[in-house]
Task: structure prediction
Amino acid sequence: MTTPGAPLIEVENLEKDYPTGAGVFQALHGVSLRIAEGEFVAIMGASGSGKSTFMNLLGCLDRPTRGSYHLDGQDVGRLSSDQLAALRNREIGFVFQGFNLLPKLTALDNVALPLMYAGMGREARRRQAQAMLERVGLGERSHHTPLQLSGGQQQRVAIARALATRPRIIFADEPTGNLDSETSRQVMDLFSQFNREEGITLVLVTHEADIAAYARRCIRFQDGRVIEDVAQAEVAA
Amino acid sequence: MIFTSLLETAWHALTTHRMRSFLTMLGMVIGVAAVILMLAIGQGAQAMVRSSIESMGSNLFIIMSGAVSSGGARVATGDAPSLTFDDADAIRDLPDILASAPVSPGGAQLIYGGVNWNTSVYGTTPDYAVVRNWSMASGSFFSDADVRRGARVAVIGGVVARELFGDEDPVGKIIRIKQAPFEVIGVLASKGQSLDGRDQDDTVLVPISSAQQKIFSNTLRNRARFIMVQAVSEKRMDAAEASINELLRSRHRIGLGQDDDFTVRNLTALAETAASTTRIMSLLLGAIAAISLVVGGIGIMNIMLVSVTERTREIGIRMAIGARRRDVLWQFLIEALTLSLFGCGIGLLFGIGGAWLVERLAGLPVAVTPASVLMAVGVSFLIGVFFGFYPARRAAGLDPIDALRSQ
Result:
C-alpha cells in the first residue's frame, strides 16, 4: 500500500462561514487538499481550529460556503440533501466520540440501521449486520443493548455500523476520546486492520498525538487553515 | 426505505414508551368509542322513527271530530262526533284523494276458548287497509259489502293472533268481542311500534257498522270519531288539505267566520318533524363526540412534538447514517398514524360493545352501521396525518449537525 490510488477526496479553496450574532464567523479559510483512496489520514488541531467543520464538510453533513469538494468525482456542493443522505449511506461511515448508538436498539439492530436506509430487507440486513459484528469480535453480543456493553464494545458496534454498507471512507471524530488507553489501542488496531486489509480510506480527527501516530499522514489545522501536511511512518500494530 | 421497515421502526418506538403510547391512544379510544356509540344511538332512533313512519302509511291526513277554537283551547271533543260516513265517502270523491276511511275506535275484551285478551278495536272500512298500507299475513280483509250489511267478521293483528291462538291458525275461527261472536277472516302483517310507541299489531279491525251495533252500542249511528285519508301524492297534500276543509265546511254548513267542528292534521308532516328532530339530535350527539376525537388528535400532536424534541439526537444519528428527510418524515408520520389507527381500533371495540350494552341494559334501539365504522376509521386516519404532519416535518427539517450535537 505504498502507492496511493486515484484521489477520492479533492477539495479546492474550501471556505465555510457561520452567521453569528456579531456578524459572520469564517471557520475555514481556503483549504485545498487531496486524499487518495486507501489512505489513513489524521487531522489534528486545537479546538476551534476548524477541523470539525472540515470533517462535517468531508462527511457530507454540511455544504461549503465557497470552494469545491469532489467526492469520487462528484461535486458535493451541487447535491440535494436527499442525494447527500444517499451518499452518506453508501460511501461514508461515521464513528463518533460519544459512540452515538441508539440506546433502545440492540447491537444488531444498530448495525442493521444503515442497511435499512439502503432499502435492504429485514432478514438480509440482519444477516449482514451479524457478519459485521463478528468481524469486530462482538458476534456473541449482538442482542445486547448499548447500555449492556462496555465503552470499547460500544465503539466496536459503532465501527461495525459504519462499515455495514461497505463504504469507501470512514470518518472518525475523536473515536478514542471516551476510552482508556487499552481499549483505545484495540479500537485503533481495528481501524488499522480495516484500512490495511480492505483498503478503506480512513480520516481520523484527534488531538492526541499517540492516536494520530497510527495514521500515515497527518494534517494539522490552525485558525481555519492547514498549517502542516506530512507523511509519517506507520506504527507497528 | 421499505414500508415494513417504517412500520417496524414505529412499532419499536411506540413499544419502548408503552405507558406514554397508551395514554396518547386513550384520547383516540375515547373519541372513537364516543362517536360510534352516539351515532349508534342516534341512528337507532332514526331507524325506529323511519320504520314507524313507513308503517303508518304515506301522504296521510287524519280528520278528527271537534276543533281547536280560535282561542287555542280544544272544544267539542268526544261525545258527539261531527264526522259522518257520508263525509268520508264525499272526501274519497275529491280529485286529490286516493282513499278515505271512517274510524270508530274503542277497547274491548276478546275471548277465544278459555283465553281472553284486552285490546283496541277499530271499526272501519276496507279503505283503512289501503290508507295504512296494511297487507295480510293470511286470510283477507273485509269488503264493502261486509260493511254495508254489518257482517260479524274481524281481522286481527299479529299480537292478538299469538295471544289468543298460539300456534293455531286463526282464520275461520269464531272469537267473542264483548260477548258478540265474530269470525276471524284474516291476520294482519306485522308493523311493530308506532311513532307514539304503541304496538300496532295489538289490534282488531271490524266493519264500522258491526262495531257500532255489536261492540260499542253506539247511539250515534253513521258517525265516525275520525277519518283517515290518503292523498294521491306528496305534491298534492296542500291542495288536498284545502279541498277537504272546503268540502267539510260546506257539508257541515259552517258559515264565514265560524269555527270548524273538525280538525285536519297532516300526519306525514308531523312524522317528518319527528324524523328531522331525531336527525338533529343524532347530529348533535355525533358532533359532541367528534370534538373529543379532535381533542384526542391534539393529544397525539402534543406527544409527537415532545417525542421529536426528545429524540433530536436520534434523528441526527439516523440522518448521518443515510436517512433522507422523507425517511424521517415518514418515520414520525407513521408513528402518529399507528397511534391514531390503533386507538381507533380499540375505540371501535369499546364503541360497539357499549352500543350492545345500551341496547341490552337500557333497551334503546341502536344501529352500528358500516358507514359510521368506515367514517370513524377515515377520520382517525385523517387525524393521524393532520396532527402527525407538523411534528414529522419539524423532525425532517432538522439540521443533521445540530441534531447530532444536541444532548
